[in-house]
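HUMAN: Quick job: go over this next protein and say how the chain folds.
***
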Amino acid sequence: MRLSDDGITKLFDLLARKVCFTFAVCFFSIMGAIAAVPAAVLIWVTVPYETPFSFYRDVVLCTTLIIIAAAVHYFLYGLGRLWGKRWELGDLCLLNDHVEGSRMSNDIPTATLREISLLLEKLPGKNFRMAMLLSMPVVIIGTVQNYVFSGKSFDALYFLRGGIIAWITYIIFTYIITELSTSNLRRKTRLILADREAWEGTQHSTTLMIKFIFIIILMVTSMIITHGISTSSVIHSTIKAVIFFSVLNLVVGVFMCILVFVSILITLGEIEATATQLGDEQRARFISGSIDREFVNTATGLYRAAHKIIKYRDDLHNLNLNLEQKVKERTEQIELLSRTDPLTGCFNRGYLIENLPQEIKKAARYKRCFSLIICDLDHFKKVNDTYGHQGGDQVLKEFVQCIRGAFRGDVDWVARYGGEEFVIALPETDVDGARALAERIRQVIARRTIVAGAREIHITVSFGVTGFDAATIPERISVENLIREADRCLYRAKNEGRNRVVICRL
């Protein structure tokens, strides 16, 4: 319930908790009967009662009828719940069964929650019609008994005029009070449905023009009341009539500002809050508690627009993430291609030139051993001439596979130095270990039969091995010295008959 006074809010919550929600709504809506007091004054000053008894008779009769109508209204809207009885109207039972005091549980099934939301939308109109039906007999019976006892049709018409004005003002205030007292719960149900993506808009909203019609009706009735009082025998002073008219219209204006425009201000506040918080929200949250069609449509449009904005924002965020991931993957691919030999899949000469000095410096700094192997396929030109470049390419690929199958994949690495010549870097490996590795590769490749199309190819490889350890003189450790020594050993292997491993230490 959106009321500014804490005492009224606490009273509403107490009635809703001790009896039921619809009774609390009914209790406050019947308080709208206070708006009928000016019409009762009109009856008092315009109906020419012959004796005070006639006036008291009408007062007692109408008061009794009003009490009976209010009691029936209370029972139809849940007073029986005070004693554990479900005597309220059938469709209100669902609402009272699921509303705890004046609060809504979040665990209500979606289908049931939709029915509750529909009931809350219908409740102002339903309570309006109930008040209209129950208060109409008061006007009719009061008019009839006045005519029967007075026998004067004009007196009965004066009474009927005042009764109709009282009836109209009462049912108008009943409608507006019911709407305001159910606004908060109505918004709560819509929010839960929206969170479940089950909000589909309202079906029983009313146009805002109705409230402006209410204002016009109340202004007209205030003029009728003022005119009736100013022409009666009770008030003879024009100044008193003007004062009464001003006070009456001021009261009507204040009440209408409180009861009509509060709902407008609430919705405008919700719109402002939504616009402020939309950038920080992860989902669309704005749903108005209004029952006016214009504000409901505005709320629905803003909710759907916010939902789309958030969806587009999330889609754009995901798109950016995917794009960043793809850029990262492509960058890694480009980096891999820039350092990889496209034919054999091992590192290329650029990677060798960039990383070999770092490996050597690292090993020298920490006094670790390091070895380097340069290997060259024997008579590779003859392979190309005999089996073509396709056969030569196949030989290079399988040779690199043999190397990778022999060394430590997480530490050692191989790079294509040029043509059919390859360099194998062996961190944490001494020269003897490097010679054993080279010998193992040499034997594997010498026994291997390489199939190129329908032909079988046999090749051999020569190896030059060098390296250093903690005992090596630091001045001798350099990239140039390692490659020069490995090349010299490879040259010796070629000169000594190929298909062999030759080592030398720095």
